[in-house]
Specification:
The protein is mostly beta strands and 490 residues long. The chain is built from one helix and 39 strands. The chain has one helix at residues 348-357, and strands at 4-7, 27-33, 38-42, 51-56, 59-63, 77-80, 86-92, 98-104, 107-112, 121-127, 141-143, 147-148, 156-161, 165-172, 174-181, 186-191, 198-209, 218-224, 230-235, 249-253, 260-265, 274-280, 294-300, 314-319, 327-328, 337-342, 359-367, 369-370, 374-375, 381-388, 407-411, 420-423, 429-433, 435-437, 441-442, 448-451, 456-462, 471-476, 481-487. The strands form ten sheets. Strands 1, 16, 17, 18, 19 and 20 form a six-stranded mixed beta sheet that branches. A five-stranded mixed beta sheet has the order 10-9-8-7-11, with no helix packed on it. Strands 2-39-38-37 form a four-stranded antiparallel beta sheet, with no helix packed on it. It starts with a strand and ends with a strand. Bound molecules: calcium ion (4 copies). One calcium ion binds next to loops.
């Protein structure tokens, strides 16, 4: 059996919004029916509005966005990819509308949906043996983007091939193999326990994003060295639309284990990647069997030459059981800020109460970054957020706490360029508290409430209609239903 094991290692790259006069916008809600674990947002017909592609096994359902109606409940198109393991992602291929690309064991195929009413036009664009398995016990397609924007009409396409190599394909009239990056990923042979014998599996850990803000996506790869260390390499994209094969950054993490989480982000917006490394303590709390939740957060600011220093520049502590640190530019001044959390459990009784009420209080501490001074050592602003976690079995906030459910600071729900607090704060609602200023922090009462009396699996934040205000997609649990809240302009 083959196994796809994919992850995206670095935190999102900040988008600096434009400050304008604002009020609480109104949101329209709609629902789409459909099964699937992943949803892709992309503009398939080129009308400037993101459409939704729901991925379920190898079945795709397409919901086109209408500027007044939002989304209709039923998909306008459904079709099935080839019955083989594949990676799928959207990319803009020489025109305004985006296409869906599918990579299988023998190359890349483009699906073009510009004619909404007929099935997509299909074209094989790259014929090349890749490391995607030819067959698996359970055949499915998963979302994994393998294209890099160049600032021009065509992206670069990346094809992982044998022996850990990554091919870079460039479009010049036709698709041509332009570059080869060696040692870009792990492809190892590992024993598969249930089925004696050996089968190949691979891990692909790479991230594509514009690190130095020149409009060209850069590439970071992460290779597990197999000795408890891993090596990150950053390749910047040149003005000729290819990668500089001399890495701009090489960093070996000597603590490659479950307790350590690494996030790469450009804190100062100077084009150099900085490192935030958090380590979860294995100390026990006073509740038997419950770890203490203490986490050490070490910030390494890159040197002038882009290198990561041996010793951390600043060290912080938090206690929220999460190796994940939300690094976002909360106040929109162009510098990333640090958000630290604490979940106080003072007693066994307190812990019991937390379990029975299905709610805990998360204390958020904001440390704003100031040029020349770094993150403030003292907390700039502190705020308690009640978090309702519902019937999630057990209690393990872990990385999911900040990521894709319960709480997020990745959205701007009034379009003022400042990030707002989105939190599942009671069993009926997901609430938004606007960030008013550094000093006064988030609103005391919710500015927006998105109704969600059902159990939910996760949410996704994205500006689907391009009005500069974040929209919200909520996946409901145990129902083939997604609820979508779309802003109606500023
Ligand atoms: Ca770049
Ligand atoms: Ca900031
Ligand atoms: Ca805002
Ligand atoms: Ca919007």
């Amino acid at each position: 059996m083959g196994r796809l094991n994919l992850c995206l290692p670095f935190a999102g790259i900040a988008f600096l919004g434009v400050s304008t006069v604002f009020a609480a916008p109104t949101f329209k809600s709609c629902e789409i029916d459909g099964q699937g674990s992943e949803i892709m947002c992309c503009d398939l017909n080129g009308n400037g509005l993101d459409d939704l592609v729901l991925l379920d096994g190898t079945d795709l359902s397409i919901y086109f966005q209408d500027s007044t109606q939002g989304f209709e409940r039923k998909p306008q198109q459904q079709f099935r990819l080839d019955g083989r393991p594949s990676l799928v992602w959207p990319a803009r291929m020489g025109k305004k509308a985006e296409s869906l690309l599918m990579m299988t064991s023998d190359g890349v195929t483009e699906f073009d949906f510009t004619n909404e009413t007929s099935p997509p036009a299909r074209q094989e664009i790259i014929r090349q043996k890749t490391i995607i398995p030819e067959a698996m016990d359970e055949t499915n397609a998963m979302y994994f983007p393998l294209s890099a924007k160049t600032g021009g009409d065509w992206p670069l396409l990346l094809a992982p091939v044998a022996d850990g190599g990554l091919q870079v394909w460039q479009h010049q009239d036709t698709w041509r193999l332009a570059q080869f990056i060696t040692n870009a990923m792990n492809a190892i042979v590992a024993p598969f326990i249930q089925n004696p014998g050996y089968s190949e599996w691979f891990t692909l850990s790479l991230s594509i994003g514009d690190v130095n803000h020149d409009g060209r996506d850069d590439l970071m790869v992460d290779v597990d060295n197999g000795d408890g260390t891993e090596t990150y390499r950053l390749y910047l994209q040149n003005t000729n639309g290819l990668f500089n094969l001399e890495p701009a950054l090489v960093y070996t993490n000597k603590d490659n284990n479950w307790r350590t989480t690494i996030a790469w982000t450009d804190i100062q917006g100077n084009g150099r990647l900085d490192l935030i490394k958090s380590t979860v303590s294995d100390e026990q709390s006073f509740v038997p069997g419950l770890p203490s939740g203490k986490v050490m957060v070490a910030v390494y600011m890159a040197n002038q030459d882009g290198r990561i220093p041996d010793a951390p520049t600043q060290v912080f502590r938090k206690s929220d059981w999460s190796g994940y640190v939300p690094v976002v530019d909360v106040d929109g001044d162009g510098f990333m800020d640090l958000v630290l959390g604490d979940i106080p459990i003072d007693s066994r009784e307190g812990f019991r109460k937390m379990i029975t009420e299905k709610k805990f209080n998360l204390s958020l501490r904001l440390h704003f970054f100031r040029p020349g001074a770094g993150f403030s050592n003292d907390t700039d602003y502190e705020r308690t957020a009640p978090v309702y976690y519902g019937s999630d079995l057990g209690w393990s906030p872990g990385d999911r706490l900040y990521f894709d459910k319960l709480l997020s600071l990745n959205g701007d729900f009034n379009g003022d360029g400042k990030k707002d607090l989105l939190v599942r704060d009671d069993k009926d609602n997901i609430s938004v508290y606007f960030l008013n200023s550094r000093e006064s922090g988030f609103s005391t009462r919710p500015d927006l409430e998105f109704p969600c009396p059902e159990q939910m699996d996760w949410w996704q934040i994205k500006d689907l209609n391009g009005d500069g205000i974040s929209d919200l997609i909520v996946k409901l649990r145990d129902q083939d239903l997604f609820r979508i809240f779309i802003s109606q302009g500023k």
